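S.,

As promised, the beta-D-glucopyranose run. Input:
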Amino acid sequence: MKQTRTLCLAACLALALSCGAPKTDSTIGASPEVERRVEKILAQMTLSEKIGQMNQVSAGGDVSNYTDALRKGQIGSILNEVDPVKINEYQRICVEESRLGIPLLVARDVIHGYHTVFPIPLGLAATFDPDLVEQGARVAALEATAQGVRWTFSPMLDIARDPRWGRIAEGSGEDTYLDTRMAEAMVRGYQGRQLDTTSMAACIKHFVGYGAAEGGRDYNSTYLTERQLRNVYLPPFQAAVEAGAMTLMTSFNDNDGVPSTGNTFVVKDVLRGEWGFDGLVVTDWNSMGEMINHGFGVDRKDVARKALQAGVDMDMMTYGFLSHLEELVKTGAVKESDIDNAVRNILRVKVRLGLFEHPYVDVEAGAAVQYAPDHLASAQRSAEESAILLKNDGVLPLKADAVRNILVTGPMADAPHDQLGTWAFDGEKSHTVTPLKALEARFPGKVTYVPGLRYSREKRDAFPDVVAAARRADVVLVFLGEEAILSGEAHSLADLNLKGSQSELLAALKATGKPVVATVMAGRPLTVERDLPNCGAMLYAFHPGTMGGPALANLLFGDVNPSGKTPITFLRTVGQAPLYYCHNMTGRPYNGETLIDDIGMEAGQTSLGNTSYYLDYGAYPLFPFGYGLSYTQFTYSDIALDRTSYGADDCITVSLTLANTGEYDGTEVVQVYVRDLVGSITRPVKELKAFERVSLKAGESRKLELQIPVSSLAFYGLDGVKKVEPGDFQLWVAGDSASGEPVPFTVK
Ligand code: BGC
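Predicted complex:
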C-alpha cells in the first residue's frame, strides 16, 4: 500500500512562515486591557507593598504562620503548599484582608505530572512526540490547578551532555532541536492554548547553562562562550518565550564567572532586550543569597541590588528583596522604577491567569479530577512511547499464550516509589502500578516473584533462590536500574554502571540458559555495555511513572511495539563523558585506528594514527543519539531533495519512502540531520533539524515529504550575527544519528 502525505514539521513552526507553518503564540494573554489593569494596581501600591510582591516563600505548617505577612502584603507567591483548603485560606487572607486584595501565585514543582505521574522528562523526550508531551503537561495542569497550584517550575530546558549530572533526568537530553520541540510542547500544555482557570504558568529554567556543570557535578561552574550559549543553550528558551512561557527561573551556576541571578547580559540584554520577554523572572531557591557564596557579593543587601539590576523580579527564599530593597531605594542605590518594572511583570502574570477573578478552588471538584481515567491512559501511553528497545535477539515480543511460568525479579520490579522518578512530590505509591502488579493481574497464577535484590545498591555473593526459580520458569523478566534518589537535583554520580550486585544477578540468570529480558528503569543513560551480553533483550524505560507497569507489560508482550529513541547518547563507559552526536568537526576525525589491545611492546609514538579517540574505548558510544529498535524493521529508500540549490528564504522538501518490512505494525521516528560543510566557524558534524513519528502496518510502505526551512540552518558565526552562511551542505534521513547516506545540497 502506498500513500503520499506531507508531514507538517515543527521545524517550520518558529522559523519560516514561508514554509506555511502556523505561527506560535507569543502574545498569549497579553493585551492593552491587561496592561491597564496592571498600571491601575501599581499606582495604588506603596513601596513596601511592591517589594512584598517580589518575595516568594515556602509554605509549611500552619497558614497562621503567614497571616500577618499576607495581610501586610509582604508575600507575592508561595511554593510547596498543595492542600487546597489551605491554599484557599491563603488566598482569602490576601484577597479579603490585605489592603489591595492581590491574590497569591501558588507555585509547585510539577515536573512530570502532578498526582498522575508521567515518565521523567528525559523519558518523555525519548518519545519524540511533542503532541503527546503537550497532552501530558495539560493533564498535569488540570490536576494541579484544580487544587489551587497555578504556577509550575517546569519545563527544565537545560541541554545536558554529561550523564553524571543527576538533573539530566529532568530535561530533554543533549540536543537543542529536540529540547526546543519539547519546550514548546510543555509550555502549551501547562498554560493551555487559551488561558483559563486550568492554565498553570510555565517556568522555563534554569537560565542558563546549568546543564553544562563542570564534571557533571551539580551546581558547578560553567564556561560557555557567548557563541555556544546562542547556538546551543539559548534556542530552547527563546522558542519557549515565543510559545508564550509566562515565567523564567535564573540558575544556580556561574557562567564564566557571573552567577546567573546577577547576570545582566543574559537576563536584561538577551531575554528582555532581544526577545522582548514581559513575563516574570524568579531566582532559583536562594540563588540570590548564594551569590555571596560565589563571592559575587558581600552580603544580602549587595546581592539583592545586583539581582534587581540584572533584571530579576522575584526572590525565592533569600528574603533579600524583602529585607533590603526599601533601604536601597532610599539611599538611591536602586531606582524605584526598576522595582515598578519587576512588580509589573509579576502582576501581569496574576492578571493573565485570571487570579483576581478566580482566586479560590472548589475543593471537592478538584479532588475528583485527580487520577482521572484519561489521565492514567495518557500517562500509560507516554510510558509506552518512552521505552527504548536497545537489544533484541528475537526473544521479544513474548507470546502471552505460550508462557506458563514467568519469573519476575530485580530491585525495580516492584518499587512503586522509585519508578515515579525524581521530582514526583505529589505522586503516590498507592496509585502506582508496578511491573510486578501489572503482570500478576494479567497472568494470574503464572507469575513467580523473587526480588533477588531488595534495592539497587544491595550486594549479594550468590542468588540461589533466584536461580532456582529461573530454572523452573519459561522466561525471566528482570527489572534493574537505579532508584529515584540516585538522579535529580544534587544527585550526581561518578560511576554509571548498574549499582550493587545487579550485573551479577543478571549474569547468574543468563547462566541458567533461560530466556532473560532486562528492563532498566533509571534517571539517566547508565553504562550497560557489560550487561548486554547477559540478556536476550533490553528495554530502557527510564523512570516510567504511575502507569509504568501496564506500559511495560504491553511492550514486553507485544500489544505495543517499542518506538522510543535515545534522547541522549548512551556511553560505553563513564570516562567517555561528555560524548554527544553533534560535536564540532575536529581537525583529526577518528577513522578507526589502533586500540590498546593491538599496541605492541615499545610501540612508537606515531604508530597510533593520531586522531581523536580513546585508546581503550575508541570514539563511538554504545548507542548513538536517536537510536531505538522495534519489533519490526523499517527501510528507507528513494531519499531525495526537491532541488539541489536553495535560497535563504526557501524551504527544503525531503522526500523518501519508508517501508515496514517486518511482521509487526510499528512506529518509526524519521529523523533528518544536516551538516554545514564550511562555515566562518567550525560546525557540528551533523545536527537534527526535523523528526516525525510515522506509524505503518506490517508490510506497508509510504511516501513521505518533510520540510525544513533553510532559515533553520542559521547560526551565530564569526561576526556574531545569526544567519545562514551560503555554501555546501549534506543531509541525512535515517532512524538514528549514526545511519544513512549523505545527500548534498547548496545554499546560495
Ligand atoms: C531547584 C529548582 C526548583 C526549586 C524550587 C531548586 O532547588 O533547582 O529547579 O524549582 O528548587 O523547588
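The CA atoms of residues 396 and 556 lie 6 Å apart. The pocket of beta-D-glucopyranose is lined by residues 109, 153, 205, 284-285, 489 (CB under 6 Å).

- D.
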